[in-house]
Amino acid sequence: MNFIFLLTLFSLNSLIETCVRTIPPEEVYITSTELPTDKPNEPGEVTDAPVPNAPVTDAPVTDAPVTDAPITDAPNNQCTMCMVTPPTSNPTGTDFTSVEQAAAGDCKKTLVTCKRTDDQTCKKVSIQTSTSVLIEEADTKEASALLQCQNDGTYSFGTVTNIGQLSCVYDCASCSTCDISKLTLPMPVADTNFLTSDFTGVDGCKQTSVTCERTDDQKCMTVAVVGSNGPVSDDLASTTNDNTATAILTCQADGTYSSGPV
């Protein structure tokens, strides 16, 4: 019984050995799978590999700061924003005007004028600032200047810049310098009187009333105030059947009086 079992095992082992195929030496070869290397990436290749030796920080990555500061437009051109500062006052019988000449949106050009509104003609009329004379006209009633508004928001005229307060200057003082006492006056006769009185006319010039009168109750056929200029004489004022006559003398730009034709 035991013999049969051993024989059976032996036979089985022999059978297994006969099933093993012998591989010739020339058919033996080695295969392998290529492992990744540390070769640098090709240009343009995206990789998540960490950068060697790069410093590691805990600083957060932030976007550009956002503020609430308003976004403003560029400032307007200030050459459209000039303002004329007129004279603080105007003498009697004068006026100051300013008229814009430029179209809307253009740099301002303003015509300013100092002028007399009466019949008086002055030796000089000028427009001035606190430090400069912008323009001066002779033997006239008015003077004008065209102011140009600059990019800094101030006016200029010629070489004068940064124009502020304006003033009008009228050289008409000579029409107030007449003096009646320097004239040759009549010597009053008995019961008569010669009266004078100074006042300022509407044109700003000095005027003097001259009156010849009787101091009694007598009335004359004619009472006259006579004036002369060298060889020329004329009645400045006269009345009939009265006891008084009055003439008005007006001081002129040359410092002399005039009345009517004299």
TrEMBL record:
InterPro entries from the UniProt entry:
DUF281 (IPR005098)
**Leader sequence residues:** 1-18
Domain DUF281: from-to ranges: 106-155, 203-257
Q: Which UniProt keywords apply?
A: Signal
* Superkingdom classification of source: Eukaryota
For the keyword Signal, the answer is yes
- Return the PANTHER family for the record: C6 DOMAIN-CONTAINING PROTEIN-RELATED, PROTEIN CBG25732
What is the name of the protein in this document?
A: DUF281 domain-containing protein
